[in-house]
Amino acid sequence: MRILFTYMGAPTTPDEIGDFIFRFLYDVRHHIGLDVPGARVIIKGIAKARARQVKSHYDAIGGKSPLVDYMREIAEGVSERTGYEIELGMCYSRPLLEEIEGPFDLVFPMYHVYSSSTTERCLVKIRELFGEVPYVREWYENGKFVVWVRENIRAGLKESGFENPYVILSVHSLPKRVIDEGDPYLESHQKLAKTVMEAFDSPWEIAFQSKFGKGEWLGPDVPEVLERLKGEGVEEVLVYPLSFLVENIETLYELDVEYKEVADKLGLKYYRARLNHRSPLLIEAISEVIENASG
C-alpha cells in the first residue's frame, strides 16, 4: 500500500520563501485578478516584495517553517504504525508533487477539514500528475483526533496556570465568497469546535486569523475578539489553532508574536496552546482513518 500525504507546504529554507509565495500566487492567479499577459513576471515581482516583508517573521522562528519537517515526522510515525509506504508531496514547497514518483493507492490530505481552497487545490494537482487516485476527503470527526485536540487544549490550560480562562479557537480565515458558494469549511469547523468543547466548562468561541488579500473575509479576527473580551472584563485568554496539525509561521509568529503583542497592550493574560504532533493519539487517529479508507 503506497500512500501520498499532501498539503500546500511551507518554506523549508530561507531561500525558498520567495519561491513558495510565487508558486502559490501563480497557482491562484485566476482568483486574485492576475491572470493577465505577463502574469509570471508580475507575480515574481510581487513574491519577491512579499518575501522581503515576511523575512523577519521567519527569522524570528529560526529562518524557515518547521511545517514540512513536522509533517514528515507524522508520516514516519503512521508508516511505522501501519506498515504502509508513505510519501510526502507538497503543492508549493519541497518536496514538490511534481518531483515525486507515483503511482499511489490513496491520497491523504493533511487538512482535517475539507475546503475547495486547500484540499481540493491539492487534489487537482494530484489528478493532473497521477490521474484519479482514491482519497480521504476529510477526517475531523475521527474520535481519536477529537481527543487529541482536547488533550492539546488541556495541556495548554495546565501550562498557562489560568484559573478562569476564555478559550478562543483560532481558524484560518477564507474569503467569504468561498463559503457563500457552498464550501463546507466554516460549518465543519463549527461542528468540530462544538464537539471538542463539550468536554470543557470554559466559555469559548471561534475567531479567525491569516487573512490575505482584498475583499470580505470570515471574521471576526482574533485581535478584534481580544479587544471585545477586554471590554467585557475577561482577564485570561487561551488560544488554540483549530485549523492546524503542526506548528508553522501562522502559529509561531502570527499567534505567538503578533497577537500576543495585542493582548499585552490590552493588559490581557494570553497563552497559546501547542500542537503536539508527536502525540500517539494523532498517529493513531490518522492510521485509523487510512486503514478504514484502504479497507
TrEMBL record:
<dbReference type="GO" id="GO:0004325">
    <property type="term" value="F:ferrochelatase activity"/>
</dbReference>
<dbReference type="Pfam" id="PF00762">
    <property type="entry name" value="Ferrochelatase"/>
</dbReference>
<keyword id="KW-0350">Heme biosynthesis</keyword>
<dbReference type="InterPro" id="IPR033644">
    <property type="entry name" value="Ferrochelatase_C"/>
</dbReference>
<dbReference type="InterPro" id="IPR001015">
    <property type="entry name" value="Ferrochelatase"/>
</dbReference>
<dbReference type="InterPro" id="IPR019772">
    <property type="entry name" value="Ferrochelatase_AS"/>
</dbReference>
<keyword id="KW-0627">Porphyrin biosynthesis</keyword>
<keyword id="KW-0408">Iron</keyword>
<keyword id="KW-0456">Lyase</keyword>
<dbReference type="GO" id="GO:0006783">
    <property type="term" value="P:heme biosynthetic process"/>
</dbReference>
<comment type="similarity">
    <text>Belongs to the ferrochelatase family.</text>
</comment>
<protein>
    <submittedName>
        <fullName>Ferrochelatase</fullName>
    </submittedName>
</protein>
